[in-house]
Write a structure and sequence with these properties.
Protein-Tyrosine Phosphatase, Chain A, 2 domains, 17 strands, alpha/beta, eight-stranded mixed β-sheet
Length: 422
């Protein structure tokens, strides 16, 4: 009897959401089984990018630099903001609905009785598309952790861990040492392993040593030196007077440096010129990473959702002083370190607009309010039932020289992008 598969992308995504009994279930056995059934053993070079924060930006730098060098790049990232298609890009363009449906159909046929999570299914579909398109290189972003993440079913020529900090403690552990071990699981014996954390946990260093990975750590094997209007990279090569990344923030130098360090290790197979690196720095964009919308008042969108990212956001705001107030529109997931995020941001905010997040695991505005109260925040606070309502209030209250900073979750930024037509 013929299989009846969904006919459009929306139906496919609904099907994917219903397949597995858990939204997240770490482990590679199911992915390996379906990968084998798909005969999915691409010979193309793979770069895997993990880390607590900076993964998406680093993937974007790799895509831009490799594209500038003339390669056809397959890029797989998550989560998406507005469209699932954002997750899968080939040759610098989002894959269309028809291609995604074809890939999902191939995975569905191959999986048989094996149950796959939404992310596992999407990972296999993305790599199937990259293999069919015969891209020159695939860049895969880790979804969660590293060691047991679905992308780790594919062997990287080079693996990057951008940073190690506290997040997803229910799955990865509650210390940097435990989390560092999980992140280091994407490293491979005898292959380049880039670490953008200049104080990596001992567990990451030890795992790399135990398996014989070619580990290169920020501030030891490569480094950055930002100047007033440009910056210098030092690694296997010296690149001086590089153009500043288009994406603002001190941490973007580290993310860009991780990408350059990885490309240096792949030079024999994927040579990239200094000119391509320069062009990549000037063309890299990643939505929701200190994204400044045009117009007044200024609107800053940032997906920061853990203390490490919130500290970076606070530093960015501090480095970009304005003449008016900063209004924060914040909505978060309940399982995040809300208190830590508040502590990181409280001194950069003049007024808080808190919203309940109407998604699974979403925190209520009252929970956020309680965290602000516990932190001793004295700035005005308003609670709303939705991001849309909080956004309406922010627009009403912000004057032309003020700024609105939207943060706390991918869901929060996505909703505001929808409301602004982003």
């Amino acid at each position: 009897m013929a299989e009846h598969h969904p006919v459009n992308l929306a139906d496919w995504l609904g099907h994917l959401e219903s397949l597995h009994h858990k939204t997240i279930e770490l482990g590679l056995a199911r992915v390996h089984a379906v990968k084998t059934a798909l005969q999915l053993a691409p010979s193309l070079p793979v770069i895997i990018v993990g880390g607590t924060n900076g993964k998406g930006s680093t993937c974007a730098y790799l895509e831009a630099m490799l594209t500038a060098a003339g390669y056809r790049v397959g890029l797989y990232t998550s989560p998406h903001l507005l469209r699932y298609n954002e997750r899968v890009r080939i040759d610098n363009r989002e894959v269309d609905d028809a291609a995604l449906c074809a890939a999902f159909s191939a995975v569905e046929t191959a999986r048989g009785p094996v149950s796959l999570s939404y992310f596992e299914f999407g990972t296999l579909a993305a790599v199937w598309l990259f293999a069919r398109a015969e891209v020159d290189v695939a860049v895969l972003e880790v979804g969660l952790g590293g060691r047991l993440d679905a992308v780790n079913a594919f062997d990287p020529e080079c693996a990057i861990v951008t940073s190690v900090d506290i997040d997803h403690t229910d799955y990865l552990g509650d210390t940097r040492e435990k989390i560092g071990f999980e992140k280091a699981g994407i490293f491979r014996a005898g292959r380049p392993a880039i670490c953008g954390d200049d104080h990596p946990p001992q567990s990451l260093l030890q795992h790399a040593a135990n398996i014989g990975a070619d580990l290169r750590v920020m501030a030891e094997a490569f480094s950055v030196a930002p100047e007033a209007s440009d910056w210098h990279y030092s690694g296997q090569h010296e690149y001086r007077n590089l153009p500043n990344p288009v994406m603002p923030g001190r941490y973007q130098f580290n993310n860009a440096a991780c990408a350059i360090a990885a490309l240096e290790t792949l030079h024999e197979r994927l040579p990239v010129t200094e000119a391509a690196i320069r062009l990549g720095l000037q063309t890299t964009h990643a939505a929701g990473r200190f994204q400044v919308l045009p117009g007044q008042p200024e609107v800053v969108l940032d997906v920061a959702h853990n203390p490490h990212a919130a500290r970076a956001l606070a530093a960015n705001l501090q480095a970009r002083p304005g003449s008016g107030k900063t209004l924060a529109l914040c909505a978060m997931l309940a399982d995040k370190d809300i208190a830590g995020v508040v502590q990181a941001m409280q001194h950069e905010v003049d007024e808080w607009l808190l919203a309940s997040l109407d998604v699974a695991r979403g925190a209520t505005a009252q929970v956020l309010h309680d965290a602000l109260h516990e932190a001793g925040v004295s700035a005005p606070i308003t609670c709303s039932d939705s991001v849309a309502e909080a956004w309406r209030l922010a627009c009403e209250r912000a004057r032309e020289n003020d700024r609105i900073c939207v943060f706390g979750s991918f869901y929060t930024v996505a909703r505001v992008l929808q409301l602004t037509g982003g």
